[in-house]
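Two records follow; treat each independently.
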Amino acid sequence: MSAPLRRGRRTVLTATGLVAALALTATACGGSEKDQASDKPDATTSGTAGSDGGTVQIPSDIADKLKEHGIDVDKWKDGGWEDWDKDTWLREAKDFVNPVIEGLWKPERMRSAEEADKTVSTKDASASEGVSDPEPAPVEAQAEKTPYHDNAAPVGKVFFDSPEGPSVCSGTVIKDVNHPGRSNLVWTAGHCVHAGGNGGWYRNLVFVPAYNDLGKSGTELGNANASEVAPYGNWWADWASTSNGWIQGGSESGGDGAPYDYAVLHVKPEQGSKSLEETVGAALDVDFSAPSAAEAGQMGAWGYPAAPPYNGLQMFKCLDAPGRFSLSPGLPTMYRIGCTMTGGSSGGGWFRVQDGETVLVSNTSIGPTDNTWLAGPQLGEDAEALYQNMSKTYGGQ
């Protein structure tokens, strides 16, 4: 069964025959209507806030937006964001708000975050018979080399709050074609930012590139300094965009929204002024050509699996040739690879080599409860339109 998994340096994927291995190294379709809602992500800039009862400052534009939705700004600052009343949970594409609460995501709170899992049942998987290729053999996830900033700098963790509590996914720094060299864009899964058909936008979304850079254990992290836990700092999402296909059709088992389970974040630093790409020193292009599984060649999936037997502290990767997978004959096919990564790796990028360059071609969306494979959406015209709108509307801010 499968389910969405949630709760100055140039980076390339180098191929060793593209059959035996792929290594991430650092050296210095369907349904345009489904994406229309997220083509206009109307969100606000984030403000700053103190932690542990400190003073919180929310810019007037965010305060006004909260008031538009009947949200008391003072109550929000004092923890009102923890109110998840289903009748007031903001869910439309234009409703996203994410004021910065400086100091909220401390190392211990990050470690408490649970994977944002989406699992598909055996029944759901078998319903796709005739559309999906045979189930791939499991591929054992391999630990990424440390320090991560030298081996997989663009990969990191996405933290957010859901009604269940602190949650975690994975994400990738991507290039901004309209703002070369100074991107503030992060690619992740739709279910890492929005609950889908039965919920709304998650809150307190933060991206942490190269989280736990040295791959330390939980015990060792207790004495780690901030630069080891978050070498590039915390980056708050001031805008987020996901497909209307996910907003309307996403479910706990992926559902009809699974083929559209992707999202783009525009982020800003909790502290500092440089862009994310300048700070990290790396970003990847996104391949929106949606090659077929047969044409795609070998892919690698990167992420931070958090469900047992993993603990979410270390970065892992899986390398495999993709096959096709669909939850229903009426839905677009997704890519599927063998991989033992668990929840928490959701949203992590899938990479391949195209014309000698590493590009992001998908992201982890769903996987079975026995954790033998992963599936991710094909990124075509609708995904590109969502990306371009985010870049053109908010990229330079």
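The next record belongs to a different protein.
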Amino acid sequence: MARPDRSIDPRIIKSAEKEFLANGYEKASLKEICQKAQITTGALYKRYKGKEDLFCAVVADTVAALNAVMEEKCSISVEKLSDEELVTAWEMNASTLWWFQFLYEHRNGFLLLIKCAEGTRYSDFQHDWVEVMTGKSYEYFLETRKRRLTDASISRDEMHILLSAFWTTIYEPFIHGYGWEQIKEHCKLICDLFNWRRVLGFPSV
């Protein structure tokens, strides 16, 4: 009895990732993907419903990793945090570098989501991700106001705008193909640019 070729799926994913990165979802060719994976189109359609289904399979691990991080962050009960924890949550250096390290480990999938997803269910990924981040961030901010740690007045819409600007500075190095050393230097610039303690009205340290 012939053994199933278990190398087919990894070959498809690898070939599809390269094609989507090179041409974006809309211009990507299933024919090219199949040729480079050395399979027939019939073999591909046995595994995936079509091009979008294949794109989603390519980014699945990255999406799962991002969702896991966000679920962990959203599970934090801000009411149980100390005053110091609420304020230091806005410190930039360590947390921003952590995000860059995490995203760099998932850089191909992340780049597909932020640059190559037009035409898929992830077309609005950049906006949707910021919106999720805004929800939890604003919850932190409201708790600081409730405890009179700040008297700054910032609406949820303003928080979304600020975080959109912040996350654009996160996205762009990946779009421009920065290496890790460049990203570390870029991280320092971001931390100098975004002084959340001042914006949110926390005392200077």
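Discussion point: Residues 62-199 form one domain. How would you locate this feature using only the token line?
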